[in-house]
Amino acid sequence: MKVVETCGEMFALCRTAQPPLGLVPTMGALHEGHMSLVRRARADNLTMAVSIFVNPTQFGPNEDFARYPRSLERDLELLAAAGTDLVFLPGPPEVYPDGFDTWIEPGAVAEGMEGAARPGHFRGVATVVAKLFTITRPDRAYFGQKDGQQVAVIRKMNDDLNLGAEVVTMPTIREPDGLALSSRNAYLTDEERKAAPVVYRALRAAEELWRAGERDARALQSAATAQLESEPALSSVDYVSVVDAGSMAEITGTVEGHAAMVATAVRLGTVRLIDNLVLE
Q1: Domain at 2-170, CATH homologous superfamily
Q2: Mean pLDDT value of segment 149-178
Q3: How confident is the model at residue 23, as a pLDDT?
Q4: Cβ of 193: how many Cβ atoms within 10 Å?
Q5: What is the sign of the dihedral through the CA atoms of 28, 33, 36 and 41?
Q6: Residues assigned a catalytic role
Q7: Which of 96, 125, 139, 162 might form a disulfide with 100, Cβ 3.0–4.6 angstroms?
Q8: Mean pLDDT of 151-160
Q9: Domain 183-275: which CATH class?
Q10: Which segments of the chain belong to CATH 3.30.1300.10?
Q11: How far is CA 46 from CA 11, 29, 49, 86, 213, in A?
């Protein structure tokens, strides 16, 4: 496994690597969700690369960039054991050198949910992923369904700008009680961790209603919301949305004819959790 810290060296190594090349972009603090992507990328490709970069431009001014979990030594051990060929480990000045002033502005797919709750977030995501794609030129790039809107933003950008990667979405990996794996779960106190599975129960409430034949988006949204409101430990509910899983457009009538996604973001103390289920 080769660890690379500069864009120029990574670009050169990827140009001479044996294709197909698979890329797994991460912000480190790796968990089983990340490693499921790594294993799939290893199985699919002759060369497998992972990037570790805590991207400052996707964090808002009052968000957790400074304290975001970092566990580089352990991450590298996990990646070596999984057979990773290349690890791209740039610092912020390498990705955003002095004078950097070019940004990717996503369109309608980024407007609701996370885009509304975290202004500028998807501009940072899209810009750094565009840079990673142009540096590594992957044949395939792997992302988790937990960040469903992020995947839609990246897929749309990849298509619109002809970046040429196959964007592969992998299922959300969960704890036995349903909590979606996330690096930020490390912030949860014991009491908050006990309450956190309510997020998945809320999504399941909507899914079970849908499986019973309900197709009204507002009814599905209400079922999820009621479940969340039953948990007093929640600090707040940022949103519960029923959207088209491709365009991320809010569905206000029937979900019939859509691959619908039920998505939510909540706060438990200082921790913000997001999750979603696709109804199919």
Answers
A1: HUPs (3.40.50.620)
A2: 98
A3: 99
A4: 16
A5: negative
A6: 34
A7: 96
A8: 98
A9: alpha beta
A10: 183-275
A11: 17, 25, 10, 12, 45
Q: In the beta sheet, which residues pair with residue 250?
A: 243
User: CB neighbours (10 Å) of residue 23?
Assistant: 27
Starting at the earlier edge strand, list the strands of the sheet with 260-268. 236-244, 260-268, 271-279
- Cα dihedral 192, 193, 198, 199 sign: positive
* In the chain, ranges of CATH 3.40.50.620 domains: 2-170
At position 166, the amino acid (one-letter code) is E
CA distance linking residue 125 with residue 128, whole number of Å: 5
pLDDT at 260: 97
Report the distance separating Cα 185 and Cα 265, nearest Å.
Answer: 14
Q: What does the DSSP 8-state code read for residue 22?
A: E
Each residue's pLDDT tens digit, 224-258: 999 999 999 999 999 999 999 999 999 999 999 98
- Tracing tokens 């950097």 back to the chain, one arrives at 100
Confidence band (pLDDT; 50, 70, 90) for 280?
Answer: confident
Q: Please state the separation of Cα 19 from the chain's center in Å.
A: 25
For the four alpha carbons of 168, 187, 221 and 241, in that order, the dihedral sign comes to: negative
Q: What is the pLDDT of residues 201-231, one digit of tens each?
A: 999 999 999 999 999 999 999 999 999 999 9
